[in-house]
């Protein structure tokens, strides 16, 4: 008999592969439900897919109740996440979730679905396979990292590096490799996850230490603008050692480190492998709170942007009039401003002109957010970027990173 925890793991796994029929065909629950499938009819995977979809529909409360009712929210979450395969930012915006609330309700929704499925399992299901089919390593890593990233935090990079060096110290000794550390005095904290940053460093260091011919590994970190730039390099003992040349992409053994860096909001610069050395570079965001001024007469937009950025170390300040926007911009000197065009009394173009004429506010990058296709007008008046409405979380984050991380 499957325990509740075992069933929960298997239901979650099946949902993540809802449309992967080759995977579902050998899934433990599918094998237990349909050990033999006659030819000519639906395959085991098709039957299992249909069962999952029907069970999700059973969560849809009759009478179309408010979507704020818990059961209705669980139903909507499962449909958006797994049936329609929407992005997390889209779901969080649609249902009004913060990141932590989303993952909390996702766990509860899957638990409720598992309870429904248990009622459909044959009695005495001790013959159900308990091991899951092989999953792609990247999928498993992403799922585990998502769980860790529920709560982002300020991370002391220096302390994490020291801890990582202690972990790989014995390995370095076994391979007769010296490890040097070169850190800027007063290196700022970074924003992300202590656990994930440790895994990035440990994985990268251990991979470099165990490379043939390596005698020295060096880790270097510097602050560059609003990021902390990391560089890990090796020195080979034989200059004629032939390393595989990799340009712009991480080597296969560093793919997991690359994935974790990107999930923390960093940027993986790549791995440069040459005969005489191997250099890996990546950037992480500095943990300093940035102020974003959102100028929009629709306060729902201000709330939405605040929800978008709640886990990304921004403080969102709203302004609903042009005069208020200019005053706040002068007083707070925000890192960036988002500006709507269709505003009463004074439209966005007038506000943009006022901001750019004022020497105090002129340097602040302005992102025009509008339903109108006027990107050329926006740039001609000094806007740094243009985003069409409705603005997606991913687009807003990408614009902010492009503007602020380059400054």
Describe the overall structure.
The chain has 3 domains: 4-135, no CATH class; 153-285, Heat Shock Protein 90 (2-Layer Sandwich); 290-404, Response regulator (Rossmann fold). The chain contains 16 helices and 12 strands. The protein has helices at 4-16, 21-25, 28-33, 44-58, 70-83, 88-95, 99-120, 137-148, 157-174, 194-209, 255-263, 299-308, 322-332, 348-357, 375-380, 393-404; strands spanning 153-155, 178-183, 190-192, 214-224, 227-236, 267-273, 277-285, 290-295, 314-319, 336-340, 366-370, 385-388. It is flat. 31% of the residues are buried.
Helix/strand structural class: alpha/beta
How many whole angstroms does the radius of gyration measure?
26 Å
Range of helix content = 40-55%
How many E-type strands? 12
Are there runs of 5+ residues with pLDDT below 50, and where? 239-252
The total domain count is: 3
Shape: flat
CATH architecture name of the largest domain: 2-Layer Sandwich
SSE sequence, one letter per element? HHHHHHHHEHEEHEEHEEEHEHEHEHEH
Strand order of the largest sheet: 2-4-5-7-6
The helix count comes to 16
What's the CATH first level of the largest domain? Alpha Beta
- What is the CATH homologous superfamily assignment of the largest domain? Histidine kinase-like ATPase, C-terminal domain
Largest sheet: 5 strands, mixed
What quaternary form is this?
A: single chain
Mean pLDDT, rounded to whole units?
Answer: 82
């Amino acid at each position: 008999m499957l325990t509740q925890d075992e069933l929960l793991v298997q239901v979650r796994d099946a949902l993540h592969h809802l449309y992967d029929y080759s995977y579902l065909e050998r899934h433990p629950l599918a094998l237990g439900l349909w050990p033999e499938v006659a030819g000519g009819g639906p395959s085991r995977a098709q039957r299992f897919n249909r069962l999952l979809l029907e069970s999700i529909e059973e969560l849809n409360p009759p009478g179309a109740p408010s979507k704020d009712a818990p059961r209705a929210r669980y139903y909507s979450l499962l449909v958006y996440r797994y049936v329609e395969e929407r992005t997390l930012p889209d779901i969080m915006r649609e249902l009004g979730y913060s990141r932590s609330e989303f993952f909390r309700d996702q766990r509860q929704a899957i638990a409720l679905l598992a309870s429904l499925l248990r009622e459909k399992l044959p009695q005495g299901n001790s013959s159900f396979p308990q091991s899951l089919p092989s999953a792609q390593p990247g999928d498993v890593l992403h799922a585990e990292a998502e769980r860790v990233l529920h709560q982002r935090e300020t991370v002391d990079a220096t302390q994490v590096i020291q801890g990582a060096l202690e972990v790989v110290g014995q390995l370095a000794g076994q391979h007769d490799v010296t490890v040097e550390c070169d850190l800027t005095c007063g290196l700022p904290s970074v924003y992300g996850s202590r656990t994930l940053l440790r895994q990035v460093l440990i994985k990268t260091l251990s991979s470099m230490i165990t490379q043939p011919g390596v005698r020295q590994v060096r880790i270097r970190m510097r602050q560059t603008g609003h990021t902390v730039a990391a560089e890990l390099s090796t020195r080979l003992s034989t200059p004629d050692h032939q390393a595989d040349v990799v340009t712009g992409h991480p080597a296969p053994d560093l793919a997991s480190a690359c994935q974790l860096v990107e999930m923390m909001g960093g940027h993986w610069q790549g791995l440069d492998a040459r005969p005489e050395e191997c250099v890996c570079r990546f950037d992480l965001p500095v943990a300093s709170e940035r102020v974003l001024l959102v100028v929009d007469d629709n306060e729902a937009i201000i709330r939405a942007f605040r929800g978008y950025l709640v886990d990304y170390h921004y403080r969102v300040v709203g302004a609903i009039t042009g005069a208020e926007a200019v005053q706040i911009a002068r007083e707070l000197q925000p890192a960036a401003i988002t500006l709507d065009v269709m505003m009463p009394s004074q439209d966005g173009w007038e506000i943009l002109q006022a901001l750019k004429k004022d020497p105090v506010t002129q340097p602040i990058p302005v992102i025009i957010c509008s339903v109108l296709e006027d990107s050329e007008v926006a740039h001609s008046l000094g806007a740094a970027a243009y985003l069409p409405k409705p603005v997606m979380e991913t687009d807003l984050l990408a614009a902010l990173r492009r503007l602020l991380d380059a400054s």
